[in-house]
């Protein structure tokens, strides 16, 4: 979905009924931290409930891809272990390049 600006440029418009990808912000709950007994104390992003690629997890991202295959690859996770709510303001700028990549992908 897109809109045309007064300058004649086309810009994407959010469509909540048709998500185009997943970007995760947050703490270790998003990073898959300590989710693999073979990798204690480490992030295993494949096991993230939000963005993971491990089929055993069945992440939000994988469920989105199952119903909207064109969203495959439109995923980013900038979460950090131990992040507090006030740290999210620093994650948003880190996510913006991913957002631009997701937003403008053909």
Strand content: 5-15%
Share of helical residues: 10-25%
Strand order within the widest beta sheet: 1-2
Number of strands: 4
Number of helices: 2
Morphology call: flat
In angstroms, what separates the terminal alpha carbons?
12 Å
The overall pLDDT, averaged over residues, is: 82
Spans where pLDDT lies below 50 across 5 or more residues: none
Q: By helix and strand content, what is the structural category?
A: alpha+beta
The largest sheet is: 2 strands, antiparallel
Query: What letter string, H or E per element, gives the SSE order?
Result: EEEHEH
Rg computed from alpha carbons, rounded to a whole number of angstroms: 16 Å
What does this structure look like?
The protein is an alpha+beta fold. Helix content is 24%, strand content 11%. The chain has two helices and four strands. A two-stranded antiparallel sheet has the order 1-2. The longest helix is centred in the C-terminal third of the chain and has 17 residues. It is flat, with a radius of gyration of 16 Å. The N and C termini lie close together (12 Å).
Summarize the structure.
Helix content is 24%, strand content 11%. With 106 residues, the protein is an alpha+beta fold.
Write the layout of secondary structure elements.
Blueprint: E1 2-4, E2 10-12, E3 22-24, H1 60-67, E4 75-77, H2 88-104
Parallel strand pairs: 3-4
Antiparallel strand pairs: 1-2
Task: For this entry, give a set of tags.
106 residues, alpha+beta, two-stranded parallel ribbon, 2 helices, flat
């Amino acid at each position: 979905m897109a809109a045309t600006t007064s300058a004649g440029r086309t810009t994407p418009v959010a469509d909540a009924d048709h998500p185009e990808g997943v970007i995760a912000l947050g703490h270790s709950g998003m990073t898959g931290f300590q989710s693999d007994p073979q990798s204690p104390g480490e992030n295993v992003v494949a096991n993230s409930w939000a963005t993971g690629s491990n089929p055993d997890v069945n992440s939000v991202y994988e469920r989105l891809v199952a119903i909207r295959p064109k969203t495959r690859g439109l995923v980013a996770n900038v979460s950090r272990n131990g992040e507090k709510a006030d740290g999210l303001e620093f994650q948003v700028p880190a996510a913006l390049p991913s957002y631009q990549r997701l937003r403008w992908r053909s």
